[in-house]
Amino acid sequence: MPSLTTTQKTSAYKNILHYLYFKKHESPKEDPKTPKNRTLFVLNIPADATESHLRELFKPCGRVVSVQFLNRVRDSNLTKEEREQQEELERLEREAALIEAQGAAGTKAGKKGGKKQAAAAVVQEEEHRRLYATGSQAYVVFLEEQELNKALVMKKKKRSWINSGADASPADLAKLTGLGVSKWLNEYHTRRPEASELQLKVDDYMDKFERSEYEAQQAALARHNVMDEDGFTLVTRAGSKGQNSDGVITITAAKAEEVKNLKPKKKELQDFYRFQMREAKRDKLVDLRRKFEEDKLRIEALKVNRRFKPY
Amino acid sequence: MGVKNSSLYKAPTNDEIQGLQESSDLFKSNIFKLQIEELLKEVQIDYKKAQPLEAALRKLKEIFDRTPAHQELSLAVIKASMKKKSVVIPFPSPEPSSDIQYTFGYSAPSAMHLVGSFPLKTVSKGRDGWSVDVAVEMPEELFQEKDHMNYRYFYKRAYYLSVLAAAIQDKKSGMSSTRTEFSTLHGDQRKPILILHPSGDKSETDFKKMRCTIRIIPYIPSSVFPAQRLAPGRNNVRSADTTEQPPTPQYNTALQQDTAFTSHLTFLYQHSKNCAAFKDGCILLKVWATQRGLIRSTNEGFNGFLLEMLMAYLLQGGGANGGKKLANGFSSYQLAKGTIDFIAQHDFTAQPIMMGQQASSGEFSKEAFVSNFDVVIVDPSGKINLAGHVSKAALDELQHEARLAMKFFTESSDDKFEALFLKRVDSPILRFDNVVKIHVPKDVAGLKSYTKVAALDYPSPFVHFARSIAPLLKRGLTDRIHLVATRYEPLGNWATSSSTPDFGADSVITIGLLLNAAECARLVDLGPPADDLEAANVFRTLWGNKAELRRFKDGSILESAVWEAQGTDARHLIVGQMIGYLLKHHFAVPQDSVHYWAGQLNKFIQYNSKAIPERLFDNKIAAANGFQTVVNAFEALSKAVKTAEDMPLSVTHMYFTSPAARLASTFIPQPRDFNVPATHFPDSAQYVEPLDVIIQFETSQKWPDNLKAIQRMKTAFYLRLADKIKYKGMRSTVVEETAEDSLGLNGYLDVRVAPGFVFRCRIAYDKEITLCEDIISDRKSSQSLKEQHQKALDVYNRYFVQAPMHTFLMHALAHKYPSLSQTIRLTKRWVSAHWLAPYFNDEALELLSAAVYTDPAPWAAPASGFAGFARVLSLLSTWDWKHEPLVVDLNGEMTAKERDDIRHNFANTRKNMIASNSATSPQTKTTSISSDHASMFIATNKDTFSKWWTWQSPSPMMVARLKALAKTSLDHMLKVTAASATTSSSALNALFITPTAQYDVVIDLDPAMCTRYAQNLSPDAQNFVTKGDKYKNLGTFQKSVFGDQILIGFDPAAEYLAELQRTYGDIALFFHDRYGGTQIGVLWNPMALSPRAWKVNLGFNNKPADVNKDGSTKAKNGKTTGGSKMVVPNIEALMSEIERIGHGLVRSVQVNRDPSATN
Hints:
The complex is a heterodimer. Chain A is α+β, with helices and mostly antiparallel strands. Chain A has 9 helices and 6 strands, in the order E-E-E-H-E-H-H-E-H-E-H-H-H-H-H. Chain B is about 40% helix and about 15% strand.
C-alpha cells in the first residue's frame, strides 16, 4: 500500500507530518457510487478533512468525480426488513431536507446550471463542516481508470495540507473556516430554524409519514383473507381488540404465567408430622451454620481488605 | 459460598449448638461477634511477653527500698540536693513559699501495688501505646496532721516523687538507662507522676517489646487524714488574698483520690472475677471512647478508669426499679452496649450516681456532692466523687456520643461495627458543624471571671477559663445548638531536669459546635418580658449592649437580641457572630483571636466578587433570595403552559428537573435581563444556563406508533406551545438537535421567563418506552438496532423517569437538611475544579453528598456546608469502592431486605467485572454489559443496581483519581484548620487548585471566548471591564464575536470538549473544569500508544512505527515498499488536528510529555 505524506504548519507545530494510506477500492459488490476501477480507498484522513481538501490533494493525478467519507461503517447486522424500513425513513428525511435546501438555493443560485449547484453544495459543506472520527476513511472516485492508476503509482512525498502562522495564505485560512467557534455558532443557529420553516418541515414529514402508514396498512389488509394457491387462508390478528381478520373466531394464546397459576395448589399441614418438626429443626441448624460460615468468610475478606486495627 | 453440604448436615455437638445460639442471643449477629473477636485481638496485650516488664518492676522496688531514708529537711535543702541530682521538684502551682515551716522527708515505700488496667487485664492498646500503673505507698510517718491543708500534701508528694526519680537516674541504680519524665495524673497539675520509658538496651529489664511505659504514682493510705476533713464542702486552701473560705471540692477530691487506688482496684477485680466478659467489655468501651477523643489527658474529661468503674457499678445497680442494669452472664458486647445505653439515658444531674451506701445527711450526703460538683459519680466508699474533675460539657459530649452509638447499635438494617469501633472520629472539622479556635487572652489571670475565690480551687487560670467557656456559650446559644464541646492540648510530659510547665500564652482552646439546623439561623433571641426585672437583668448581663427592649407584633414587650444577616448562607453564620460577641463581652477575647471555621468555603460557590462587577452578577442579591427566584419563575411558566388554550392535548404535569430545582446547582441561578442587549455583557459572562423542565400531556391514542414520527409530533407541539405562550410574555425558541443516530430527545423548547431564566422544556410520552422495549425484546431485531434503541431508552429513562424521581427525593432531603444544598454545591465545585466534571454526573455527586447526611455514622448528620463538605471528602478519601456499595437511603425507609438485595446486586456486578476483565484481552473493545460498570456503586431506594447515574462512568481510574485528590484536599483542610494561624478563606484556595503536571498535554483556551469564564475561581478582572474607561457608564462592550443575540446554553469550551471526546474519545481522555475553566487536560490512552499491526479500522490518526521525524524511513536495508506493518499514533499530527478543530478558541497547546518518546 503506497502512502502519502502531507505537511502542515501551525504556530505550535511546524512541519507536522500526516500520513495518508490509499489503495484501489475492491469490493465483491458493485456499487454505482464507488465504481470498481475508478475508486481509490483513502485511509487515515485527518479529522477535519473536507471534500475540497482531498480534491486538491489528488488534482495532480486527474479529475476527481466525487469524494465519499465513511464516518461509520454501515451496519451489516441489520436484517433486510429493518434496513428497508430505515432507508425509507431516511429517504423521507432527505426529501424534507431537500425542500429546505431548494428553498435556500432558490434564492442564492437562481437558474444557473448544474455545475453551480454542485459548487453550492460544496459551499454548504464548508458551512456545516463535519468532523470525522480520527483516522477515518474515504473513497475518492476518479473520472477515468488511468487517473486512478496514476494516483496509485504516486511517489511517497510530502505535500502541503495547510500552512498557518506567518506562512498562511488566504487559501489556508479558508480551510480553517467552519472549524472551531464558527462551527459551533453555526450549529447553534442551525438547530434553531425559523418557526415557520420548521412547521413546514414537520407538516411535510407527517403528511408523508401518514401516507406511508396508510399504504402499509392497505397492503397488509390486502394480504388478509386471501386464499393462497394451496387453498389456505391465513388468518391473523388485526387491531388491538383481539378480533381476527375474518371477524369470526377469537383465539388468544395463554401466557406461561397464567398457565402456572391455573394449577391447583396442594395444601399441606405444616408442623404436623414428627418428621416435619425434625426437618424444620435440622434446617434451622443448617441455616445457622451456613450463615456462620458465610460470616466467617466475610470476616476473612474484611481481614484481607482492612485490618481490625482501630488506631 | 464454598461450604460443603455434607458438613452442614452432620450432627451438631453440644458446644457447637451453644456457640451458634450464643452469637444470636448474646451478640447482635454472628458477624458482629466475629468482628469483636478480631478487634479484641488487636488491642489486647500479650501477657506472655511481660517477663522483662516484671523484672523491671521488681528492680524498681529494689531501688526504692535501697534508697536511704531521711527526715525533716527544709525546702531550701531539698531543692539544693535535688538540683545536684539534676532533678527539679515538680511542685504544683502555687509553688511553696520559701518561708514555710514544715519539712520534707523520704523513707522507703510502705507498699507497692500494680493498679489500673494492667493487673485487671483490661488494657486496650492506644495510639501512643499503653501504660502500667505502679502505685507507690508513701509511709504514713512522712505526713503530719495538718498536711491536707494548703497543698502541703501535694508538695510532699512532689518531693517524694523527685526522690524516686533521682533514685532511678542514679548511675548505680541499674536502671539509669531508662528515660524518665514527669507528667500529670489525668491532667491534674496538682498530681505529678513519673513516667518510665523502656531503655531499649536489651537488658533483662528492657520492656521495649511490650510497647508500654511505666507510670509511678505515689499515694497514701486512707488512714492518714480523717475522711471528714476532705468532704466536698470543706475548705482546705487558704489565701492571704481573701478572707473567704469557700469549699474547695476540686482540691479535696484530688487528695481523696490519692488514697483509694487499692480499694478501687479491689472493687473492679471483684466484678471481673464474677463476670467473665467484664474485661472484654471494658476494652470495647474504652476503644469506643478513645476513638471519639472522650478519653483524654486533660483534667476536665473522662478517663478509662472512670468508665470501668461505671460498668462495674452497673453490674450491681443502675437498672430500672433499683435492679441491676447489667448481669454477670452478659457478653462483652452486651456489657459495652448496656453501659453506653446507661450513659445515653441517665440523667446525671437529677440522679447522681452513688455506688455504695450513702449518707442521708451530713458532709457526704448526696446534696453535699451535688452542690459542689458538676458531675457526681461517688465511689463505693460513699466519700469520693470519682468524677469530681469532670466538667458538665465533657459529660454532655459523652452523652451525645453515647446516644449516637445507641442509634448505631439498634439500627438493624446495617452493620455499624466499623463506625462504632474502628473509625477514628475525633477530628473536630469532621465531627462538628462549626469549629472555633480561641487564642487565650494574654491576661487570662486578670479576667473578671477568675476571682480570688475561684483561684483557690483552680490554681491554673487557663484551666478555669477553658472550663467556663462552654457554660457561657450554652447559656447564650440556647436551642440553636445541640452541643458545645471544648478541648485543649494537655500539658504533656516534661523532663525531670526542667521545671514544671504551665499553659502558656500560645495555648489554644478548640470549641466544637453541633448546630440545631432548625433554629441556628434565627435572627432574634427573645428574652424575658420587661416587667420581670430579675430575669431581665440576667438577660442584660448576658448580652450587654446587644440586649434591647422590643415590641413585637403580638403586642408583647420583650428583652431581645437581634442579629443582622441576609440570606441562608449568612444566616447560618449568626452563631459565629454570637460566639464572637459573647467571648468579647465576657472574657475580653479580641475578635482577631477567635478563629471561626464555618463560612470560609462560601466564596467558592459564588461569583468572584473581586473580579466581576456587581452589575453583571450580584452575589448579595442571589444569596438573599436563594433559589426562590428561579422556583417562582418556574411556577409562572407552569401556570402559563397549563392554561394555554387551543392545545390539542392539555398539559397535566410540569416537572422542574434541573439541579436548581433540588437546590443543588453550584451557582444560585441568577436572572439575566433579556431586555438588555447581549453587547452589554462581556463575552466572558455571556453564558445563560438552560434549566430542564418536563411537560406531560394527558394520555391520548392519537400519537403515532413510530419513534421518529413521535419526535416530529413533539416538535409540532413545541411549535404550538411557543405560539400559545407568546402572548403571556414568554418568548420561546424551538430547537431541533441534529444528531443523526438519536431516536429520542431530538428537540426541545427553550422558554424565556421573567425575570430572566430560560427553561428547556421537553415533552414526555410514556409510550416511547414500550416502543423501544418491544424492539429490544424482539428476537428478530438485529443487534445494532437493539443497541440503538437501548440507547434511546436509556436517554428517555434518564430524562423522563430518573431525573424527576431523583429531583423529588433530593428536594425533600434538601429541605430536611438545610445545609445539604451547600454541601452539594461545594462538592460539585470541587470535583469540577479538579477537571473531573466530564466523568461524574451531577446526580452522582448529589448522592455522594446526600450519603453523608442519610448515613452520617460515625457522626451525627452535619448541619453546616463546611462540615458536610469535609465529610464528603472524608467519605471519598476512605471509601473502598471495589468492595463496598454505597447505599443512600434517600427517604429513610429502606429495609434490611433491600440492603441485602443491594449487597447482592453489588456482588454480582463485581463478579462480572472480574470475569470480564480476565476474559477479554486488552485489545478488544468491551461493549458487553458486564464490563467495568458502576465502578462507583451508588444504590438508592429506587435504583438498587446503581444503574442510574454511575453505570457507565466514572471508570475505576477516575474513581482512584478522585480518591487521591480527596485525600490531599482533606489533609490540607485539616492542616489549615488545625494550624489556627489564620481563618482567611484564601488558606483554603488550594483545595480548588488542581495539579496539572500529570497531564500529557494541556490545552489553553482563550478566556475571552469562554462564555462561562465569569464562573472561574479566579477570573481576570480585565475580561469584565468595558473597553475604554471613558464610557464606563455606558457599559457597552465591543461587539461580541458571538453576534448580538443572547445565546442560550452556548459554551464554546463545552462544545470543544464534546467534539474532542467524540473524535478522539478512544485514544485520549479529556479533563476540564466546566465552571469557567480555561484549560483542557489531555491524557493519551497508554494502551493505544504501543506500536501495533496496521489495519483498516484502527480508530486513530497513525503513522508507520519506523519513520523518523522528517518522514524518512528508518534505515532498514532494501525494504522500501510498505516497510513494516506496525503503526503508532501520530501524536504530533493529532495535536495539530486538535488545534485546528478548536480554531478560534484554542490559544496555545503545551505538551508536558511526549508519550511516544517513552516507547
